[in-house]
Amino acid sequence: MSYNEKILDHYENPRNVGSLDKNDPNVGTGLVGAPSCGDVMKLQIKVNDKGVIEDAKFKTFGCGSAIASSSLLTEMIKGKAIEDVTQIKNTQIVEELSLPPVKIHCSVLAEDAIKAAIHDYQMERIRHLLNRKQHANLEKLEEAIGIRVLIKQKGCSGLKYDIEYAYDIRPLESIIEESCSDGQKVKVLIDPKSVMFILGSEMDYVEEKFSSGFVFKNPNEKGKCGCGESFHV
């Protein structure tokens, strides 16, 4: 199969090949594969305190189209906020590289890799926060097993997110266990009365210059109060 000039350029002169420190809490790693052709892609991102991807590296075992898709993806995501990067679709890579139909799966692999890397980064941030909390409270005999998410009735709009460190599992709680790139697990426990208010939500821990905390993207929210501290559904 003959490749066009843009694919050949990224294949012969791939951008951002390499690895980032997987032990850095600001680094997320996505490792995905395509069983149909044997292609394997590892994508790593480094996110700054503003939620912007400041660096990206990849290693891909596969055909020219897979390597070109990986290389192009790293260029597309560097300097962009995570929120924007999550909107990237494989069709954009197909269009940029003019991939033939038989190679579209290479672009799907790239889209899967960035989703996996972002997911891993978010889990690493939560685990890092838990570890930091434990080290700051060494006088406590018990260790936090995860974080608990609750929705409490308070605030101007009636409902407010509340996050606490969980030292046990309560009856009827929903448990979400996610794996980080180093194999460790992070538990997110959801209070049974709160589940209906946060179905389909995304949660991330964000550190800014003057503040830090958990941020929710909740499709169930109908509006917020003026200060943004509470919401209604």
Automatic annotation (TrEMBL):
UniProtKB keywords: Iron, Iron-sulfur, Metal-binding
GO biological process, one term: iron-sulfur cluster assembly
SUPFAM superfamilies: HesB-like domain, SufE/NifU
CDD domains listed in its UniProt record: IscU_like (cd06664)
One protein family per Pfam: NifU_N
One Gene Ontology molecular-function label: iron-sulfur cluster binding
NCBIfam families: iron-sulfur cluster assembly accessory protein, iscU
Similarity-based family: Belongs to the HesB/IscA family. Belongs to the NifU family.
Protein name: NIF system FeS cluster assembly NifU N-terminal domain-containing protein
